[in-house]
Specification:
The protein has four helices and five strands. By secondary structure, the chain is α/β, with parallel strands linked by helices.
């Protein structure tokens, strides 16, 4: 049986960094689309990038689009997210959440949550250059910035 594919585009925003931030995820399956956004009054851009991916995978866990099997193609313009989940995470786990310089991994709480969610899916993690004209990435960027501005005005 051929896996069904959900395509996800994520982005995070923070201005200043650290400061108020927002995140967005666009989940696309066939003709269905789900938009998720959120904000945090005091955060960093990297935390917002991670939160976007976590929220998207959590949405699939609680509201999957039909029966399994399901493959996820996740696109991000964050090298921190893409490299972290594909290259750095196994080393961090092996070294008890410490980096090669023996300092604690930043954002370990979110990395641990993302790792747990990622174990439940067949995920391909793709990096794409930000602001390069890819329409869903550009849209995720706009949504993350809008969420950040809404969050700034609601606090």
């Amino acid at each position: 049986m051929r896996p069904r594919i959900v395509t996800i585009y994520t982005d995070g925003a923070c201005e200043p960094n650290p400061g108020p931030g927002g995140w967005a995820a666009i989940l696309r399956y066939g003709t269905q689309e789900t938009i998720l956004t959120g904000a945090d009054a005091d955060t960093t851009n990297n935390r917002m990038e991670l939160q976007a991916a976590i929220s998207a995978l959590e949405e699939l866990r609680t509201s999957p689009p039909g029966p399994e099997p399901l493959r996820v193609e996740l696109y991000t313009d964050s090298q921190y997210l893409q490299q972290g989940i594909t290259a750095w995470l196994p080393k961090w786990i092996a070294h008890n959440w410490r980096k090669s310089d023996r300092q604690p991994v930043l954002n370990a709480d979110l990395w641990q949550e993302l790792h747990a969610l990622a174990q439940q899916r067949d995920i391909r993690w793709h990096w794409l250059r930000g602001h390069s004209g890819q329409r869903h990435n550009e849209r995720a960027n706009r949504l993350a910035n809008e969420a950040m501005r809404r969050g700034m005005h609601s606090s």
